[in-house]
Design brief:
Blueprint (H helix, E strand, L loop, with lengths): L1 E2 L4 H15 L19 E6 L5 E11 L2 E9 L8 H15 L4 E7 L3 H6 L3 E9 L3 E9 L3
Length: 144
Amino acid sequence: MIRSPQNDTEWEAYFELRYNILRAPWGQAKGSEQTTDEAQHQHFAYFDDANQIIGVGRLDQTAPHVGQVRFMAVETNQQGNGIGKAIMDEIEAVCKTKGYLQIILHAREVALQFYQKLGYQMVEPSHLLFGEIQHYLMQKTLYA
């Protein structure tokens, strides 16, 4: 099941997964997995059969009719099992209901193939995170 966290325990698990996958391996401080404007964005958590969060993602609106996917993460031992795709499918469905025309994201090099399989096109290299993780701007048009 994919939905937004709904209580303190779920929010803690949501941010813990983001930290463990996206920040901790690079020695980043606890708290670096969050931004000051979290409440302004839409959050997606993939809950397994035991009601544990094993995948997360966030949708931001960056411009009229443009959504940006941020903070995508799946538990390491669950990667490759369709969880990331399920979250992206849900995010895209929400974008369509909101009338978004395009989705953008900044993918780590290791995730390029994943997003390309979902129909995202690489635009250009974007930024280098923590001085070592190259990111690439990717986009997908939802409506012609």
